[in-house]
Amino acid sequence: MSTTTEIEAALKQLSLHDAQAIARWLQIYLDQQGTRKDALPTRAPISLPDYAARRRIIFGNKVLPNMVLVGRDEERW
Q1: What Å distances lie between residue 41 and 27, 33, 34, 37, CA to CA?
Q2: pLDDT digit string (tens) for 12-41?
Q3: Rounded to two decimals, what is the model's pTM?
């Protein structure tokens, strides 16, 4: 068995008890792989720019229209 479809077909031929046993084994195996030291390190959270603060710096306290809503009003549906 080398392809996913072959493995899936073989699993479908098993009894429910055997398929559940394989699923439990696979879950344990994947959990162990996830806790290995050589696993990929988790990435630091990404800090997104504060667009609202940038807008206030550029435009001050002006209230800008929502251009999507304005465009929808102008379209013929």
Answers
A1: 21, 13, 10, 9
A2: 899 999 989 999 998 999 888 876 656 566
A3: 0.41
